[in-house]
């Protein structure tokens, strides 16, 4: 592995888990509760449109549903578009800060 990880315990999902989750949802973003869209996010992608996760990128990403990056079990994998993923990560950060300052 050559890519640096922000957390030593960070686990990426296995390729087949990501592929299965992606095809199960036909490439649609699984987000249900963002502030920037109502209800279900309607974005849909081709499997080739996976994003590496850089700033301002378009495409889809595999997300850790419960926000625990050590939990790489298949049930914790969900497909999110970049916009929703950034939104979710920001919400998780805020929740973490709120917990830490208590
Ligand atoms: Zn989305
Ligand atoms: Zn969303």
Spatially, the strands of the biggest sheet line up as: 1-2
Q: How much β-strand is present in the residues? A: 5-15%
Secondary structure class reads: alpha+beta
Low-pLDDT stretches are none
Beta-strand segment tally? 2
Average pLDDT level: 89
Give the CA-based shape. globular
N-to-C series of helices and strands: HEEH
Radius of gyration from CA coordinates: 14 Å
What is the count of DSSP helices, taking H or I runs of 4+ residues? Answer: 2
Distance between the termini: 37 Å
Which ligands appear in the coordinates? zinc ion
Q: Characterize the biggest β-sheet.
A: 2 strands, antiparallel
Helix content: 25-40%
What is the domain total for the residues? 1
Textual characterization of the structure:
By secondary structure, this protein is an alpha+beta fold. The chain has one domain (15-100). Helices cover 28% and strands 10% of the residues. It has two helices and two strands, in the order αββα. The chain has helices at residues 15-24, 82-100; strands at 60-64, 77-81. It has a two-stranded antiparallel sheet. The longest helix has 19 residues, at 82-100. It is globular and about 40 Å long. The N and C termini lie far apart (37 Å). The mean pLDDT is 89. The site of one zinc ion has 6 residues, from α2.
């Amino acid at each position: 592995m050559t890519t640096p990880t922000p957390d030593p315990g960070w686990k990426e999902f296995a390729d087949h888990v990501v592929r299965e989750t992606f095809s199960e949802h036909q490439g649609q973003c699984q987000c249900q509760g963002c502030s920037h869209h109502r209800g279900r996010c309607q974005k849909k992608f081709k499997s080739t449109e996976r994003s590496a996760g850089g700033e301002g990128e378009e495409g889809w990403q595999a997300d850790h549903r419960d926000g625990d990056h050590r939990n790489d079990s298949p049930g914790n994998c969900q497909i999110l578009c970049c916009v929703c993923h950034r939104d979710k990560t920001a919400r998780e950060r805020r929740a973490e800060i709120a917990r830490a300052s208590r």
